[in-house]
Amino acid sequence: MTGYSGKDIDGLHESIDQQIANFIGFIEEKYLSTKTDSRPVDFARKIQFLTLDLISTFALGRTFGFMDEDDDLFDYIKTTEEFLPLMQMIALLPWLLGFLQSPLFKVIRPTHTDTLGLGRIMGIAKEVVSE
User: Fold this and answer.
1) Which domain covers residue 21, as residue numbers?
2) How many structural domains does the chain have?
3) pLDDT of 5-43, one tens digit each?
4) Residues 67 and 91 in one domain
5) How far apart are CA 90 and CA 98, in angstroms?
6) Is 32 a member of any domain?
7) Assign residue 27 a region: left if phi > 0, alpha if psi is -120 to 50, beta otherwise?
8) Residues 31 and 42: beta-carbon distance below 8 Å
9) Pick from 45, 71, 97: which residue ends a domain?
10) Which contacts (CB < 8 Å, 24+ apart) does range 45-50 have?
């Protein structure tokens, strides 16, 4: 069984190392508790920030900035979570995808001009490609 090696991405391992180091610094700076100061952290959410910043580093050559802002930028995670039930339904009923891709549903699909969610991510990708 073979897997993806990332050989086509220059500096892949260095980028991963840098983002992991950034993540550790991010957690230590904002969420490291002391004996007198408890700082709870939603680690699952912070790992999502790391993952999205890693993906954008590989795909676009820069991070989206989820860790920098310590926030769900563009409500990307929120909208993705809201659409999970629909994605699961499409996985179970593949014919539904063709139906949703029809021109009738164009107005509800994300586009690069959206300010939130996947559409905003598409817009950023389009901006980077055009540079």
Assistant:
1) 11-71
2) 2
3) 667 778 888 999 999 999 999 999 999 999 999 999 999
4) no
5) 10
6) yes
7) alpha
8) no
9) 71
10) 45/72, 45/77, 48/77, 50/19, 50/20, 50/23
